[in-house]
Amino acid sequence: MKTIIIEDEYPAAERLLQLLQKIDSRIEVLAVLESVSGATQWLNQNHPPDLIFSDIQLSDGLSFGIFDAVTVRSPIVFTTSYDEYAIKAFKVKSIDYLLKPIKPLELQGALNKYREMQPAGMTADYGLKMESLLDALQMTGRKYKNRFLVKQQEQLVPVSREEIAYFFAANGMVCLVRQDGRQFMVDYTLEELEKLLEPGYFFRLNRQFIATLPSIANIYTYFNGKLKLDLQPGIAQEVLVSREKVNMFKEWIEGN
User: Which residues contact 122 (CB under 8 A, 6 or more apart)?
Assistant: First the structure.
């Protein structure tokens, strides 16, 4: 069996590697990938593995973005530290879901489940099951942060989601930019915000920016397959969407 691991936490990836080898030394791990962009690139450039182990929350976004960008026919076992996703939906769809720290017996059960799918597991309708599963997951009742309390002199001012234009990081700090141009410091990293904000409304453009759709004033093609954006309210620095994120960005724009 050939598999890949999509995991941005080294200890978790190492533990999974060791458990897989202990359970079955014939399992070949082709790659350990740390990000949505890295996994998307690997899957575009290589033959699909027999099985994929994927964390849900990665350094540059939710792993669902991978499967939006790439047609994946391989069965997937999702792993995460949080049980806020639709566990029952995974079970119904014959795709397993493991909570960290992964327990050997549960991992063995996931592998057994994969083997039970063979040889009929790699059928065309598996892709349709994956699509319906991801749709179900993204419509679960997860609650996202819709309001921030920001400091204005000696006051705390509430800023609703609809008032936010974008967030940007600079000099080790993160700033919330309101649609009226006012800027406020927030006590979150962009990585933390990415997990707190609704992905249908906010998009992580790059390492420095998370934006809302109303803040995208203009979109330009840029060299090397990137996109260049004008944000509203305007900002002096250049805002680019990396080539790896262009397809996901376009889908986000079209879906809003």
Answer: 73
- For residue range 42-88, list pLDDT tens digits in order: 999 999 898 999 888 888 888 878 877 887 778 888 887 655 554 43
Domains defined along the chain, listed by start: 2-138 (3.40.50.2300), 147-255 (2.40.50.1020)
β-sheet bridge partners, residue 211: 166, 203
Distances from the Cα of 84 to the Cαs of 88, 96, 153, 204, in angstroms?
11, 15, 37, 21
Q: Is the pTM above the cut of 0.90?
A: no
DSSP 245: G
Q: Hey, is 96 helix, strand or coil?
A: coil
State the burial class of residue 119 (Cβ atoms within 10 Å of its Cβ: 0-12, 13-18, 19+): exposed
Q: What residue type is assigned to position 2 of the chain?
A: K
Burial state string for 183-217 with b = 16 or more CB within 10 A and e = fewer than 16 = ebebebebbebbeebebebbbbbbebbbbbeebbe
**Angstrom distance (rounded) from CA 137 to CA 131:** 10
Beta bridge partners of 33: 6
197: which 2 tokens? 């904000």
End-to-end, the C-alpha distance of the chain in Å comes to: 40
CB atoms within 10 A of CB 182: 15
Distance CA 19, CA 21 (A): 5
Q: What whole-number distance in Å separates Cα of residue 137 and Cα of residue 75? A: 16
Per-residue pLDDT averaged across 149-164, rounded? 87
What torsion do the CA atoms of 18, 76, 138, 46 make, to the nearest 10 degrees?
A: 100
**C-alpha to C-alpha distance for 197 and 35, rounded to whole angstroms:** 19
Q: Which residues pair with 152 in a beta bridge?
A: 155
